[in-house]
Design goal:
Strand content: 15-25%
Order of helices and strands: EHEHEHEHEHEHEH
Number of strands: 7
Shape: globular
Strand order of the largest sheet: 4-3-2-1-5-6-7
Number of helices: 7
Distance between the termini: 13 Å
Helix content: 40-55%
Oligomer: single chain
Radius of gyration: 16 Å
Length: about 190
């Protein structure tokens, strides 16, 4: 049985043209390693690239999206081919995230904006509070995108606003080799 990996990432592709290529490669690696993905349901940006790549390489995606995002036409379901084959509609963002967390065996954080940061920190907080147990979290830090985040987390520990045990809840993934190793542990 395939495991589910929850993938968080930008609904934009960012200024670096390698972001989209990297997202497509990550999607292929996820599918090749016998995983399906749980994601926010969008078809744009890095997330859309990962999802389309996962589908292209034979894995399933489960999109979890609040109704208001669909109603605001932030996603056009009539033209979407990303949902192979499941889409879960929720009332709120909080319900969306809870479902995503519950359905997932592990998490990957790709480059993104404040939404991705929110999801990253919430998952780390849930680990600290023991609401998420025994689920690996990988922060994809190809090309150093998340270097400032890693520095900030270490600064928070150094300043004693967070215990150093929190550093055990995630793994920094700097290249494809590290990603494959991370996926084998799940």
């Amino acid at each position: 049985m395939k495991k589910n990996i929850c993938v968080f990432g930008g609904s934009n592709s960012g200024k670096d043209s390698d972001n989209r290529k990297t997202a497509l490669l990550i999607g292929k690696i996820i599918a090749d390693n016998n995983f399906n993905i749980i994601f926010g349901g969008g078809e744009k940006g890095i997330m859309g690239s990962v999802a389309s790549s996962v589908i292209k390489h034979g894995a399933k995606t489960t999109g979890v999206i609040p109704k208001f995002l669909m109603q605001n036409d932030m996603i056009n379901l009539s033209h979407s081919n990303l949902f192979n084959k499941e889409l879960i509609s929720t009332e709120t963002m909080h319900e969306r995230k809870k479902i995503m967390y519950d359905l997932s065996d592990s998490f990957l954080i790709l480059p993104g904006g404040v939404g991705t940061l929110d999801e990253c920190f919430e998952v780390l907080t849930w680990c600290q509070l023991n609401l998420i147990k025994n689920k690996n979290i990988g922060i994809i830090n190809f090309h150093g995108y998340w270097d400032p985040l890693i520095i900030l987390i270490n600064h928070i520990v150094k300043e004693k606003f967070m215990g150093s045990f929190n550093l055990n809840y995630f793994e920094e993934i700097k290249d494809i080799k590290m990603l494959k190793k991370f996926l084998k542990k799940i």
